[in-house]
Design brief:
Structural class: mainly alpha
Protein name: tRNA methyltransferase
Low-confidence stretches: none
Strand content: under 5%
Pfam families: DUF2624
Largest sheet: none
Distance between the termini: 9 Å
Number of helices: 5
Shape: globular
Mean pLDDT: 89
Radius of gyration: 12 Å
Order of helices and strands: HHHHH
């Protein structure tokens, strides 16, 4: 299962705005292009582990600061979908 987590985390840490929009649409989550761009810029090179509850919560708080609390909630829904086991 660790390899699966590594792949997901790598994708999160290197995601582009377009990829984020694609995943948001796939999981029926509302994120606009500007928000996706801000989130992708923030995530780039962070090396965050979304499978760690504390790291994910910290990340969601940072996203709320840059893209707004509603967007952060939506992105957290996406993270929760990606981390389901």
């Amino acid at each position: 299962m660790k390899i699966f987590e590594n792949i997901i985390n790598h994708k999160i840490n290197t995601i582009t705005a377009d990829e984020l929009l694609k995943y948001a649409e796939q999981f029926n989550i509302t994120v606009n292009r500007q928000q996706a761009r801000k989130i992708a810029e923030y995530l780039k090179g962070k090396n965050v582990n979304i499978f760690d509850d504390k790291e994910r919560a910290k990340l969601v708080k940072q996203i709320a600061k840059s893209a707004g609390p509603e967007t952060a909630r939506e992105v957290n829904k996406l993270f929760m979908q990606l981390t389901k086991k």
